[in-house]
Amino acid sequence: MAYKHEGWTLYTRSVKLKGGRDQTIYFFSKRDPKSGNPCDLPNGYVVGVNKRTGLPYLKKK
Fold it and tell me: Rounded distance, CA 39 to CA 27, Å?
């Protein structure tokens, strides 16, 4: 089940960094992104909302 917050859906995807290491990133989107899969809220994180823009973001507990 994908995590949703006020119309935003949480997605994840794996990216390759310049050093060759793989990194999992999380992002919110209202539409279907070009790449990424809907995901649940990861353990140890809470959702914050930017006061100025209203965009949700993840932060560690």
Answer: 10
